[in-house]
Model the fold of this input.
Amino acid sequence: MTDAIGSLPPLDITRAPEGGEIGPVQAGWRLALREFSSNRLAVIGLAVLAFFVLFCFCGPLVYHANLVTANLNATNAPPGAGHPLGTDNEGIDVLGEIMKGGQASLEIGFLSAILAIVLGALWGAISGLAGGFLDSVMMRVVDVLLSIPFLFVVLIVAVRFGATVLSLSVIIGAFTWLVPARLVRGEVLTLKVRDFVSAARTAGSGHWRLINRHLLPNALSVIIVNVTFNVADAILAVSYLGFLGFGLHFPSYDWGDMVSDGTTYMLDGYWWLIYPVGFCIVATVMACNLIGDALRDALDVRLRRR
Amino acid sequence: MILVGISVFVFGLLHAVYPSPARVVLGPRASLAAIAAWNAAHGFSGTVFTQYWHYMDGVLHGNLGYSFKLNQSVAALFGERWARSAYLSGTSLLLSLLIAIPLGIYQAVKRNSLGDNVATSVAFTAYAMPDFLLYLIAIQVFALTLKIFGFEASQSTSLLAIIADWRDMTLPILCETLLILAGYSRYMRSAAMDTLAQDYIKAARAKGLPERLVLYRHLLRNACLPMITLVGLSIPALLAGNLIAENVFNYNGLGLLFFNSLQNEDYPVLLAYTLVGAVLTVLGNLLADVALTVADPRIRLT
Done:
C-alpha cells in the first residue's frame, strides 16, 4: 500500500484507443478504502465495533454503577428501575459489569493481536528474507507450535500464571503469532524477487532497512486482515478462558466469567445474567469478522486490478 | 522430526509450569526433605533431560504416566473415556459432513438466493458465537422451556447405553454439528462455487447431461476435496474430546478429564493429554495429505 505505484498521483486517462472512456485510476489505499466502504456489511461491522469501544470505555463516564460494594438487598433483581439489566447474585449492576468486562475483553483482544502480529511479522520476514537453513529451522518451530492444540496449552499456562489483562494478552499472543508468521513469510518470499528489492539492495540497504522500509509495508494488506481476525479470535479465547473459570476475577470482570456465573441461575430463569453478555460477545466477534472479511475482499480486489 | 520437537516443547513447557506433583500429593505442609524424597522415589528428580528421556521411554512402551490424584495410570483413564468422546465428536463430524456437502452445493447452484443468504447468515452467526453460548441457549430453549430433550448428557458408562439414549445425547450432538458446520459450510460454499465455474461443468452441460448428473458426477466429487483437508484437521478433536461441550453437558469424556485435571493440577494427565493432542494433529495432517493425493490424481506429493 505504500508501494512505488501508490506514491504517484492518480492517473487520469480519459481517452483510450479502443474500449471507450476510462475513468481516473486510483491506486493504493484509496482504492481499498473505497471498496471497503462500498460493502454495507463492513460499514455496519465497523459501526458496531466502534459502538462497543465507546460503550465499554466511555460508558462508565456516563453511567455510574457501583461495581465494588455488594448490595445484598437487591441480589438477582430483574431489569427495572435503577438497573437497566438487573443485578447479579451480589447485587452489583449487570450493565456496569458488562462495560467493565468489555474493557478487559477488548484490551486483551487488541493487545494480544498486536503482540501476535509484531512477533509473527518479524519472525516471518526474517525467515523469508534469510532463506535456506535458517528459514527451514524457523518454519519447523512454527509447525511444531502449531501442532499443539491451542486451547489446551493456553489453559495450562493460564492456570499457572494467573489472570491479569497483561498476562492473558501475553499468553494468547504467544500462541497466535504462528499463523501471521506463515502468511508474512509467504508474502516476503514473493516480494523478495521483485525489482524494487534488488534496487534497494544495490543501493546498500541492510537487512533491517529492507524489512522495515520495503518488505513489511508491502505485506501490510495480509498483516491487517490477519490482525482483525486475531482480535476476533482473542476475544473468543478470553471468553472461553473466563467461562472455564480461568479468566479475570473480582474486582475486574470478564464476559466469559459472567456467563459462567449466570449459568448457576438458569433454572431460576434469571436470563439477564447470561444473554445480554452473550449477545455482546457475539456482536463484537461478528463485527471483527465482518471487518476482516471486507478488508480481505477490498485488498484482494486491489491486487487483482493491479 | 516434528513429533520429537513437539514432545520436547510440551514436556519442557509443562515441566516449567508444574515441576513436580510432589507438592500436590504430599500437601502444602510437607517439608522440603519429604518432597525431595518423593521426587527421587517417583522419578521426578534429576535434570529435565533425564526426566524427559525416561518419560519418552515410557511413552514408547505404552506407559503414559501415572495420575497421583486419581490413583490410576493415565492410559487407563484415557481408555475409560475415549470411546465416549469419540462417539460424541465422531457423530457430530459425520452429521456435519453429511449436511455441509449438499448445503454447499445448493448454495453454489442457487447463489445469492434467499436460501443461500439465510444459510450464510446462520453459519456466520454460529461462527462468531462462543461454543458455550450456543449450548446454553439450546439447553434453555429445548431442555428447560420446551422440555423435549434432557439438559445433561448421558451419564452412563456403557457406550451402547449412551448411543441408545437419544433424549440426552441429541442436544450435544446437534449443537456440536452446528458449530462444526459453521466452519465447514464456508469452505464448501467457496469450493463449490469455484468448481461450478470450471470449464468441464460447462462442457458437461453443453453435452446435454441432465443437471442432476452434472451436479452429482462432476461437481460433487471435485468440490469435496477441500473437505478432506478439513476432516484431517478435525481428527485431533475427535479423540482429544470437546472440552467445552463436555463441561457444559457434564459428559464424562476426555475433555472433562482434562478440565478436572486442570483444576486439580494433575500434571501427568495434562502432559499426556497435550502430547496425545499434538501427535494426533500431526497424524491428522498427514492423513489428510495422503487422502488428498489418493483422491486427486492431479496432486503429486513432492
Observations:
- The mean pLDDT of chain A is 82.
